């Protein structure tokens, strides 16, 4: 069934059930819900379709209605559990459809029968829905839900204790308002005793949930200091690591990792972990979990390792475990699930990280990015030392091919979602290669050996095309363009780092900087709010400004347009903040309480009369009351801020639609004017082409005369070459004749051989320069003068050689003259060396000019294609011109055309 048809049928069934709650309508609606669940519409939640939104709102409303049949409610809740498949879907279900309050209301309606299957189902879905999502205390039915959880945790019903503990752990984690509400309950001490008794439970899942709740509620209190003190913390570490390694499921491992991450936020507990004697062995076994194929378990393990990298002492130990090539077997846990005898070898940790690093971008994007971040942290620690170990270098040499494999060309045809993932991965890989591996000489040499200019040029060209195409689309978000621009600029920064170490990298880098499409990413970087992006953009701008074809004017216009867009986006928010903010009386408070709160704050800030109140036993209760009021005010303020942001987004979206309409209208008017001017331009171009045709005929005649001159010059060179060969044979015969009588002739022969080698090298240079002359045409005319001067020098030297052959007949005079001419030749060699240095310097200047000439060549080729279509009537004349011209002359004629 089609998706839209299914949505319409479901919406019709919902309306029929609302009008008449009969058994037939309920069965029909239940069938439609089952068909809807078979569509697997989890990814469609983020699409924002109107029919899907209406269907979801209707289903959630029916689930929260007490008069709805329990069977239908259970079916709808099963659908919600199926839709909550990832973090984005859970966020949408919680924020857009208010599913948390609805499920809490269902639990409240059936709170008298907590063992009912519908209540257990709601608890399981709520536990899945509230994971890593902050629930405000002011949310509807949350207070009743917390009361229900506290009551059932202390009950004797084992089937309901586990989901209640999991849901309580989600609500308490990083949520100070819910923690304060639970601490203010009358039976909180009884709850603490029950939770402490659960620490001896047989189920590892119950133990993890209990530790998570106790850490959230008591970590900074006296009870928490006793539970997590120096005597017990090592046993807690051992218990948590054993649960992570030997957990009875992904959920248990997930909550165990979250517990250890929360404990590491406490500096005292983090210091305890650095001194834990079994830390290296435990981390080695945790790294062994990366060899599994489960992306969820690998993501949680990488999250734990990244949290450990935040502690300096732990990061050093992690480097030793990951980069060590081999090590002993681990003995922390007695039995591993799903692993062989060598699963815990330390040498496999780095390989497992590299495997997750190269995971497909569609399947486990979070694992790949987490592995990149972890390797960045570890390599920063390892390469920051005075001496880099051989293990780190060998690991880097093994890592580089994988990183280069990730730098492949992006493909916009697969959609924006995949393009976002590829750009995010490319940015991380470029940052890792740029900031770390290119900062140390040893690793920079490895990078320069494996990175090619063609790879970087292809990568930068693909990103540049994506950035340019997305900048022309009005529907493209600013964050998406900034993501592509960041990946592109990091790639260019990598090319800048390696331009002196990789062949042809300098020319490719200058070529990319002179592309006009570089304006969009540079302007986004220079107008960004992030300091690193601005600094990266400025460094590239400093290198691009001296280039001849850098579009500086377009860059200025783009920066001004970005600033104007930001100002226009900020104005509706300011106007809404002035007009739509509710008055201060929306907060439910009186003037007397405000004055008392302000008085208490003033006393706490100034310190006056504080010692007198410290003796009062009720000061802590008063402070708790005011803290609860302040937290209530904070929650209400957050809700008002959320409402304000929603209105601001709606207004900005309306302004954006108006701007799109105006732009489309302006484009239509511009196209109409352009079509009107095309007729006039066509007539004018016909006259211009007639004039241009006459000029081209003159150029053809001129080229014929040039060709005749070149042929005469070539004939002269051929005669000189034959003459040189004859003289060379005579010289060899003279050397063979006087070889036995004259020892000095050996030295002269060596000098002559060196001169002949120099002559060959000069001839090769002449040929290379002649080829460059054919490609560059008018831009390298100065090199022709240098070649002619070199040819004249060769002729002069040939005449000197013939003079030397005549002077060889005299014995004494010949020796003295040859010695003097030898000194002259040495001076000539010095002069030629200086000229060679000048030629090398000119070659470097020509490399920069070549990049700009390639751009001009591409533009001229486009113009030639247009003119070939327009000159189709004159094909007979062009064929006659080509028949009169040789291969080399054809190139010159085409360039002149």
TrEMBL record:
<dbReference type="Pfam" id="PF21044">
    <property type="entry name" value="CIP2A_N"/>
</dbReference>
<dbReference type="InterPro" id="IPR016024">
    <property type="entry name" value="ARM-type_fold"/>
</dbReference>
<keyword id="KW-0175">Coiled coil</keyword>
<feature type="domain" description="CIP2A N-terminal">
    <location>
        <begin position="22"/>
        <end position="571"/>
    </location>
</feature>
<dbReference type="InterPro" id="IPR048701">
    <property type="entry name" value="CIP2A_N"/>
</dbReference>
<protein>
    <recommendedName>
        <fullName>CIP2A N-terminal domain-containing protein</fullName>
    </recommendedName>
</protein>
<feature type="coiled-coil region">
    <location>
        <begin position="640"/>
        <end position="671"/>
    </location>
</feature>
<feature type="coiled-coil region">
    <location>
        <begin position="700"/>
        <end position="877"/>
    </location>
</feature>
<dbReference type="InterPro" id="IPR042510">
    <property type="entry name" value="CIP2A"/>
</dbReference>
<dbReference type="InterPro" id="IPR011989">
    <property type="entry name" value="ARM-like"/>
</dbReference>
């Amino acid at each position: 069934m089609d998706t839209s048809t299914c949505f319409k049928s479901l919406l019709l069934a919902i309306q029929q059930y609302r009008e008449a709650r009969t058994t037939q309508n309920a069965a029909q609606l239940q069938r439609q819900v089952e068909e809807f669940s078979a569509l697997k519409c989890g990814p469609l939640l983020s699409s924002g379709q109107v029919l899907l939104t209406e269907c979801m709102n209707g289903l959630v409303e029916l689930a929260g209605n007490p008069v709805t049949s329990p069977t239908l409610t259970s079916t709808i809740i099963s659908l919600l559990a199926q839709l909550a498949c990832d973090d984005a879907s859970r966020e949408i279900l919680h924020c857009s459809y208010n599913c948390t309050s609805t499920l809490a209301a269902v639990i409240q309606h059936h709170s008298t029968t907590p063992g009912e299957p519908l209540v257990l189902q709601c608890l399981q879905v709520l536990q899945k829905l509230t994971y890593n999502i902050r629930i405000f205390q002011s949310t509807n039915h949350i207070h009743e839900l917390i009361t229900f959880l506290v009551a059932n945790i202390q009950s004797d019903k084992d089937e309901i204790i586990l989901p209640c503990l999991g849901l309580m752990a989600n609500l308490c984690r990083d949520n100070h308002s819910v923690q304060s509400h639970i601490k203010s309950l009358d039976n909180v001490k009884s709850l603490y005793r029950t939770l402490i008794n659960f620490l001896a439970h047989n189920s590892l899942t119950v133990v993890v949930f209990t530790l998570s709740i106790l850490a959230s509620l008591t970590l900074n209190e006296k009870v928490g200091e006793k539970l997590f003190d120096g005597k017990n913390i090592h046993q807690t570490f051992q218990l948590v690591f054993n649960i992570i390694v030997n957990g009875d499921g992904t959920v248990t491992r997930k909550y165990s990792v979250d517990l250890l991450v929360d404990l590491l936020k406490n500096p005292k507990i983090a210091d305890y972990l650095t001194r834990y004697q079994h830390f290296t062995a435990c981390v080695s076994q945790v790294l062994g979990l990366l060899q599994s194929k489960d992306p969820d378990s690998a993501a949680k393990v990488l999250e734990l390792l990244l949290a450990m990298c935040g502690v300096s002492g732990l990061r050093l130990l992690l480097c030793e475990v990951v980069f060590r090539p081999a090590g002993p077997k681990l003995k922390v846990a007695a039995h591993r699930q799903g692993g062989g005898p060598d699963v815990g070898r330390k040498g496999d940790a780095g390989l497992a990280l590299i495997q997750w690093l190269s995971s497909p971008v569609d399947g486990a994007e979070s694992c790949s990015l987490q592995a990149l971040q972890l390797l960045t942290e570890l390599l920063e620690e390892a390469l920051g030392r005075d001496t880099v170990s051989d293990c780190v270098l060998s690991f880097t040499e093994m890592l580089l091919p994988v990183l280069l494999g990730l730098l492949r060309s992006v493909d916009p045809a697969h959609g924006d979602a995949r393009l976002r993932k590829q750009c995010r991965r490319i940015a991380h890989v470029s940052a890792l290669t740029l900031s770390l591996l290119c900062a140390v000489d040893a690793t920079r040499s490895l990078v320069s050996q494996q990175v090619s200019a063609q790879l970087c040029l292809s990568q930068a060209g693909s990103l540049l095309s994506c950035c340019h195409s997305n900048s022309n689309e009005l529907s493209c978000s600013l964050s998406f363009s900034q993501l592509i621009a960041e990946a592109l600029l990091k790639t260019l920064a990598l090319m800048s780092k390696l331009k002196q170490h990789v062949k042809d990298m300098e020319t490719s880098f200058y070529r990319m900087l002179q592309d006009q499409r570089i304006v969009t990413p540079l302007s986004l970087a220079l107008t960004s709010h992030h300091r690193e992006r601005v600094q990266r953009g400025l460094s590239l701008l400093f290198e691009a400004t001296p280039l001849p074809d850098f579009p500086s004017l377009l860059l200025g216009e783009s920066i001004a347009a970005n600033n104007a867009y930001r100002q226009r986006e900020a104005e509706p928010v300011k106007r809404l903040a002035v007009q739509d903010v509710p008055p201060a009386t929306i907060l439910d408070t009186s003037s007397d309480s405000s004055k008392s709160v302000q008085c208490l704050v003033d006393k706490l800030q100034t310190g006056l009369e504080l010692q007198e109140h410290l003796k009062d036993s009720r000061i802590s209760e008063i402070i708790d009351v005011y803290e609860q009021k302040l937290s209530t005010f904070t929650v209400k303020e957050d809700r008002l801020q959320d409402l304000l942001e929603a209105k601001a987004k709606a207004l900005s979206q309306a302004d954006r639609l108006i701007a799109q309409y105006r732009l489309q209208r302006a484009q239509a008017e511009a196209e109409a004017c352009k079509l009107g001017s095309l007729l006039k331009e066509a007539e004018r171009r016909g006259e211009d082409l007639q004039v241009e045709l006459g000029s081209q005929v003159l150029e053809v005649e001129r080229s014929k005369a040039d060709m005749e001159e070149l042929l005469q010059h070539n004939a002269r060179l051929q005669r000189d070459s034959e003459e040189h060969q004859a003289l060379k044979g005579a010289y060899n015969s003279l050397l063979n004749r006087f070889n036995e009588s004259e020892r000095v002739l050996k030295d002269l022969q060596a000098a002559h051989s060196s001169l002949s080698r120099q002559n060959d090298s000069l001839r090769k240079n002449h040929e290379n320069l002649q080829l460059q002359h054919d490609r560059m045409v008018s831009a390298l005319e100065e090199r022709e003068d240098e070649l002619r001067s070199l040819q004249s020098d060769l002729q002069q030297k040939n005449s000197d050689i013939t003079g030397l052959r005549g002077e060889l007949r005299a014995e004494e005079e010949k020796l003295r003259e040859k010695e003097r001419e030898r000194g002259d030749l040495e001076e000539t060699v010095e002069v030629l060396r200086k000229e060679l240095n000048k030629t090398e310097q000119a070659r470097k200047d020509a490399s920069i000019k070549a990049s700009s000439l390639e751009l001009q060549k591409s533009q001229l080729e486009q113009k030639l294609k247009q003119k070939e279509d327009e000159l189709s009537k004159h094909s007979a004349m062009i064929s006659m011109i080509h028949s009169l011209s040789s291969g080399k002359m054809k190139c010159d004629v085409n360039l002149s055309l």
